[in-house]
Amino acid sequence: MGLIMNQIRECKVILSENKSELHLPGEVGIWVFIFGDMLMFAAFFISYISDRSDNIELYNLSQANLSINMGVTNTLILLTSSLFVALGVNSIRKSNRKNISSMYIALAFFCGLVFIVNKYFEWSEKVGNGLTLTTNEYFIYYYVLTGIHLLHVLIGLFILAYLLYLSSLDSAVKRYTTFETGATYWHMVDLLWLVIFPLLYIVR
Amino acid sequence: MFNSSEFRYISVWLFLLVLTLVTLWFGTGHGAEDIKYSSTVALLIGLAKVGVVGSVFMHVGNAPLPIKIILYGWCLILSVVLCSIYLLK
Amino acid sequence: MTTQTSINRTALMFTGWAGPFQVVIWSLGFIVFSGFWPNIPSPSASSEEIASFFWDNTVGMRIGTVLMYFGCVAFCIWGASVAALTRVGERGIPVLTYAQLTLVGCGGAIGAVNFTLWSVASFRPDGLSPDVIRMLNDIGFFFLLWSVPIFSGWCVVVGISIMCDKSKNPILPRWNMYFNFMVAFMMLPGSLITFFHEGPFAFDGFFGFYIPLLVYGSWVLLMSWSVLSAAYKLPKQEFNS
What we know:
The complex is a heterotrimer of chains A (204), B (89) and C (241).
Chain A: H1 2-17, H2 28-52, H3 56-63, H4 68-92, H5 100-128, H6 137-167, H7 176-202
Helix pairs in contact in A: 2-6, 2-7, 4-5, 4-7, 5-6, 6-7
Chain B: H1 4-27, H2 35-57, H3 65-87
Helix pairs in contact in B: 1-2, 2-3
Chain C: H1 9-33, H2 47-55, H3 58-89, H4 95-121, H5 130-146, H6 148-164, H7 174-186, H8 206-233
Helix pairs in contact in C: 1-3, 1-8, 2-5, 3-4, 3-6, 3-8, 4-5, 4-6, 6-7, 7-8
């Protein structure tokens, strides 16, 4: 593995010298994490659609309890947060960036908070109607998928908070790879929701 | 005010917003008589959005080939598998 | 002035190899002798079915549980090698190493009790009521799978110790940190087995059984590989030093 890592590093050096601009943002390790996580979620998605095909009536009936508008709202929130993160990281390298990058990252953090608050209301409404984790197979998947995703969002907020702190330092530019790493994680959180939303809320 | 890469992010974001609204439109029963058609389109749009977010925001579009293969492969394989299982009920 | 923490190469190799050894011997016991896979005694099965699972194969079950017990001991020995490796990167009082060792001890103790209970379940065929046997089976699986937080916690601590290691040539590479955090996440579905008697999140389901065990096994093998790579890089022991 060390040899492979060295070769990747050499590749990056050569390629950047050739100005073909191939670049892997962030540390290599975050991509290990991301692909592993995506593999895990892929297993969840396939398991869901497969179990659904044995019990379509139940799944469709249960799905009717979900608010598509809430799902769309959350999708828009996360997409916007990804935009803010991308803009924030991009502005780290600008010479006159002073507070701009911090502002973008703070906005992304705020979006994440709104997502969590929305999720709280969404869940508490369902629990109030007696629809809990063990109500039926559909709701097992609903709570587990959105729950594990929510856990990722929470961790993402910690990461964004750290990036927010870093962006306030004068030495921020030197930590550019850290910003890319954190941003890559956050985009993954957005990416996962982009599949969860149609799968749970729309496919019937 | 915005440089070229920022402009790119913003235009892609707008495109993704539009795609989301298109998904909503399909998801609320418009656009197609057959619910299977709408659901499949919604799912495929979702996975396409993943590809776009990956390509532009995560810069996979500029990344080494193995990374591209893994991300786009994930989108492709999931599209095929999820849609097949869904459609073949 | 640099202080270098030295490790005995032979000791690290011995404890590192305990990792693959653990996987092999435990799998031999669990699958080949005890027969827990592929016919996993399901949480939705009746007490009679579970009782006959344990009583129709007493010899195999007993041998299997002995082997798994040794796997558990190998686990503890191996755990020390991972902790020792992260110790190299820790400055001052090795808090994170302590944290790891407590989790390893916890995991080992749980394993020991786990296999003891399964062995006891086959100890007196027809001498106990099937309901008791089913409960012993349930507890065994809970110890095996519901204990994932211990191992997730261990992965997180290993990841954090790599994160805190700011030396120029860290003994464990950075990607290992991300791998550990990823594994910590991936094992979590095991915590859900307490909610379900059937389905993919029950202790015989895809996310309740297969994911935690496969992820754990892969993690042991990959971490062993990291430990052994570090060990092979160490200079051979000089007898007069």
